[in-house]
Amino acid sequence: xxxxxxxxxxxxxxxxxxxxxxxxxxxxxxxxxxxxxxxxxxxxxxxxxxxxxxxxxxxxxxxxxxxxxxxxxxxxxxxxxxxxxxxxxxxxxxxxxxxxx
Length: 101
Hints:
By secondary structure, the protein is α+β, with helices and mostly antiparallel strands.
């Protein structure tokens, strides 16, 4: 999938996939399958699909339907997504230079 956001191209074919998070199944309105990517220039983005109660929902008429898309993230937002999605600590340390407390 490819999308232009604020004059920058985000392309899943050329970016590195860092982690993935899924929830439930297709029959659940909260279904979601989302991947975190990092571009060669260091930009972060999410790409995913989901049901009408997911982050990927789209307005249709007076309701919501499932959808898909790409969302640009800051480094701070990407780190927060990794922590919330349960991405393993080694991956987080590799990409976000986490120092032991």
